[in-house]
Design goal:
- The protein has about 170 residues and is mostly helical.
- Helices cover about 65% and strands about 0% of the residues.
- The protein is built from nine helices and no strands.
- The protein starts with a helix and ends with a helix.
- InterPro entries: DUF1759.
C-alpha cells in the first residue's frame, strides 16, 4: 500500500503539478487591478518623517523610469508647511534632487529629535473619562508611539513598563 501511494505521488500529473498551479496563480494575480497609490505628503512634523521617507523612497526615489528633476518635482509637491520651506528655494533640475533630499534628511532624520517627539506624544496624552472612544484613542496613540520606538530600535522592557504605567494613569 505504501509503495503504491509513493508511486502515485511521484508520477507527474500535469493537471496537478506545481508548475501548473503556479501558472494558474500567476494568471489570477495578473488579472487583479490594484488602485493607484498616491505619493505621500509630509508637513514637517518629525514624528511623521519615517513613514513619509519610507513611502517616498519606495514610490519615487527607487523608480528608475523617472529623472531626478521629476523626482524633485514630486518631492516639492509632496512637502507642505515647514518641510516645503526647506526645499522651496531649490530650482528644479536633475542635479538638485540629491541636494534637496539631503537637506530633508539632515533636518528630519535626527534620531534624538525623533525620540523626543515620540516620547512627548506618548506622555502628553490628556486624562480621559471612561468613554470607550477616548480609551480607544488613548490605546491607538500609545500603540503608534510603541511602534515608532520599535522602528528606531529604542523599545525596551523598561519603556514598556513606563508606557503601561503612564497609559493607565491617563484613565480617570
Amino acid at each position: 500500500m505504501r509503495l503504491n501511494v509513493n508511486r502515485k505521488m511521484n508520477k507527474t500529473d500535469p493537471e496537478h503539478s506545481i508548475s501548473s498551479v503556479s501558472s494558474c496563480n500567476a494568471n489570477v494575480l495578473s488579472d487583479v487591478k490594484l488602485p493607484t497609490l498616491s505619493v505621500p505628503t509630509f508637513n514637517g512634523k518629525i514624528e511623521h518623517w519615517i513613514m513619509f521617507k519610507d513611502m517616498f523612497v519606495e514610490s519615487v526615489i527607487e523608480n528608475k523610469s523617472i529623472s531626478n528633476s521629476m523626482k524633485l518635482q514630486y518631492l516639492k509637491a509632496s512637502c507642505r508647511d515647514e518641510s516645503l520651506g526647506v526645499i522651496q528655494p531649490i530650482s528644479i533640475s536633475d542635479a538638485n534632487f540629491d541636494i534637496a533630499w539631503k537637506l530633508l534628511e539632515d533636518r528630519y532624520s535626527n534620531k534624538r529629535e525623533l525620540l523626543n517627539a515620540i516620547i512627548k506624544k506618548l506622555l502628553s496624552q490628556p486624562n480621559i473619562s471612561e468613554s470607550s472612544s477616548a480609551i480607544l484613542n488613548l490605546i491607538d496613540i500609545t500603540n503608534e508611539c510603541i511602534r515608532s520606538l520599535e522602528v528606531l530600535h529604542y523599545w525596551t522592557r523598561h519603556l514598556a513598563q513606563i508606557s503601561i504605567y503612564h497609559t493607565l494613569r491617563q484613565v480617570n
